[in-house]
């Protein structure tokens, strides 16, 4: 749920930062070799990617729910292969979101 919420936040920022929308400007991001003035929403896109990554791991966690006699060693090992990746991805998302929030500037609406 946390990584999904961060993904939604990242997607919203990426959309609002599009030239067509122009709702927000990012103080930092990825540069462009063709357009030096452009700031790509790399952190926002990373949040979306991490949320989608965790969403794919959720299906694996659902597979680890299937236990024979409530003591499946295979299911337990699967869970512990997936859970650390999910925690690391969520923590990375939280770190990236914190940096992204600091870089958001509202567009000038004159």
Compact summary:
With 110 residues, the chain is mainly alpha-helical. 62% of the residues lie in helices and 5% in strands.
Keywords:
110 residues; two-stranded antiparallel sheet; 2 strands; elongated
What does this entry look like structurally?
This protein is mainly alpha-helical and 110 residues long. The chain has 3 helices and 2 strands. The protein has a two-stranded antiparallel ribbon. The termini are far apart. The mean pLDDT is 87.
Helix and strand composition category: mainly alpha
Strand ordering within the main sheet: 1-2
Helix and strand string, N-terminal first?
HEHHE
Distance between the termini: 38 Å
Per DSSP E runs of 2 or more residues, the count of β-strands stands at 2
Structural topology:
Elements: H1 2-16, E1 24-26, H2 42-63, H3 73-103, E2 104-106
Antiparallel strand pairs: 1-2
Helix pairs in contact: 1-2, 1-3, 2-3
């Amino acid at each position: 749920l946390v990584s999904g919420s961060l993904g939604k936040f990242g997607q919203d920022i990426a959309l609002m930062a599009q030239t067509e929308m122009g709702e927000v400007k990012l103080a930092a991001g990825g540069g462009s070799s063709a357009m030096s003035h452009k700031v790509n929403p790399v952190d926002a896109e990373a949040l979306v990617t991490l949320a989608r990554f965790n969403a794919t791991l959720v299906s694996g966690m659902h597979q680890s729910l299937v236990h024979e006699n409530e003591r499946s060693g295979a299911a337990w090992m699967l869970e512990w292969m997936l859970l650390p990746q999910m925690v690391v991805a969520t923590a990375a998302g939280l770190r990236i979101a914190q940096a992204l929030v600091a870089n958001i500037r509202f567009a000038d609406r004159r």
